[in-house]
């Protein structure tokens, strides 16, 4: 088969790769239909290593058709149209069965595309461990584009909003308006936020947030503006969707007394200086977490089916898998309005 592989900073290759096989009776194989590039994939593109591997297949967002099932798979058959969860669990412990794979009692939580242990989804074929648990039939009324957003981006944005304790009447900042940040803006409004302030360096992304109903602010002046608008009270909560030291600190600065900050951007810094004194004075609640995608599928599917969420609107580019190297470059540089890159075979 063909796949996109990582060979170091800026080096994504479209090349021949070994076909996936069922390593266990509970595995299944999915023929990829469309896959996406996630903001967290850029860490690998910039040279970060999570496992020390190189030459592995990248990516963790995909939908497709079941091509093969192991003897221990009972819920799926060849030909089924499915969406994958970006992260996988054992599917058999109490925590996984309740959807919370980040508490997997067998320590089997993993993510596609970080190394050779679990090859990525930006490939013509994908091996899914514990197939009965880690994929789902694409529900009725959900388009392929919406299903692809349900594999990671939308559940992560939803987790960010839940962890920020967004509720009717609250004031919210969303810091970073990539696909997940924009989905967080939409979700915050659906969850009843009275006011959502949206921050990003890119004017076009701020305009997208305004179109959703947010008040867009330039990060350079946002703190001063919010201080003035709230007469110094600042905001109830913030969702940080970038993962940089600067944006995490900005989120902390924008909330007021008893405020809540939710970080869903991936941060690999070993030098971030958490402002403990400021957090103490504010009585700050600070949460950071990876997403258990399976935990949120039911609520989000219902919101999409009812027409209240439109996660597919973040898609800006559709390219072939063979154009993967260029897709990564565009996504990284934000050229041509690049926001969400979707690739197909």
General description of the model:
By secondary structure, the protein is an alpha/beta fold. It folds into two domains: 2-152 and 292-344, Medium-chain alcohol dehydrogenases, catalytic domain (Quinone Oxidoreductase, Chain A, domain 1, Alpha-Beta Complex), CATH 3.90.180; 154-288, 3-Layer(aba) Sandwich (Rossmann fold). The protein has helices at 41-45, 94-97, 131-134, 144-150, 153-163, 179-190, 203-212, 219-229, 245-254, 276-282, 293-305, 324-333; strands spanning 2-6, 12-16, 28-36, 61-69, 81-84, 87-88, 110-111, 125-128, 135-137, 171-175, 195-199, 215-217, 235-240, 255-263, 285-288, 315-320, 340-344. Strands 3, 4, 5, 8, 9, 16 and 17 form a seven-stranded mixed β-sheet that branches. A six-stranded parallel β-sheet has the order 12-11-10-13-14-15, sandwiched between helices. The protein has a two-stranded antiparallel sheet with strand order 1-2. The radius of gyration is 20 Å and the shape is globular.
In CATH, the architecture of the largest domain is Alpha-Beta Complex
Overall mean confidence score, pLDDT: 96
CATH topology of the largest domain: Quinone Oxidoreductase, Chain A, domain 1
**Biggest beta sheet summary:** 7 strands, mixed
Q: Which bin fits the share of residues in helices?
A: 25-40%
Helical segment tally? 12
| Global shape | globular
Structural class: alpha/beta
Low-confidence stretches: none
Radius of gyration: 20 Å
Task: Estimate nothing, just give the exact number of structural domains.
Answer: 2
């Amino acid at each position: 088969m063909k796949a996109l592989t990582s060979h170091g900073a800026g080096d994504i290759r479209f090349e021949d790769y070994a076909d996936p096989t069922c390593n266990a009776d509970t595995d299944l194989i999915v023929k990829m239909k469309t896959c996406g590039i996630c903001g967290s994939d850029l860490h690998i593109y910039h040279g970060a290593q999570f496992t020390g591997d190189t030459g592995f297949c990248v990516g963790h967002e995909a939908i497709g058709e079941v091509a093969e099932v192991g003897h221990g798979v009972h819920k799926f058959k060849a030909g089924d149209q499915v969406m994958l969860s970006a992260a996988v669990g054992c599917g058999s412990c109490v925590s996984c069965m309740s959807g919370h794979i980040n508490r997997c009692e067998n320590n089997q939580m993993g993510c596609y595309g970080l190394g050779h242990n679990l090859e990525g989804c930006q490939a013509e074929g994908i091996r899914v461990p514990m197939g009965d648990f880690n994929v789902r039939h694409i529900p009725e009324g959900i388009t392929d584009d919406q299903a692809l957003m349900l594999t990671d981006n939308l559940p992560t944005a939803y987790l960010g909003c839940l962890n920020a304790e967004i509720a009717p009447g609250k004031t919210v900042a969303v810091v970073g308006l990539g696909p997940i940040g924009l989905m967080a803006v939409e979700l915050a409004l659906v969850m009843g936020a009275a006011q959502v302030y949206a921050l990003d360096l890119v004017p076009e992304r701020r305009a997208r947030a305004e179109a959703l109903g947010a008040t867009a602010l330039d990060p350079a002046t946002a703190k001063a503006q919010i201080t003035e608008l709230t007469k110094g009270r600042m905001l109830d909560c913030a969702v940080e969707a970038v993962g940089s030291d600067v944006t995490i600190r900005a989120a902390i600065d924008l909330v007021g007394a008893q405020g809540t900050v939710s970080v869903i951007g991936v941060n690999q810094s070993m030098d971030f200086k958490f402002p403990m004194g400021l957090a103490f004075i504010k009585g700050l609640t600070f949460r950071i977490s990876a997403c258990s995608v399976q935990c949120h599928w039911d609520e989000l599917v219902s919101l999409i089916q009812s027409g209240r969420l439109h996660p597919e609107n973040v898609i800006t580019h559709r390219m072939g898998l063979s154009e993967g190297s260029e897709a990564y470059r565009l996504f990284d540089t934000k050229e041509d309005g690049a926001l969400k890159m979707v690739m197909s075979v």
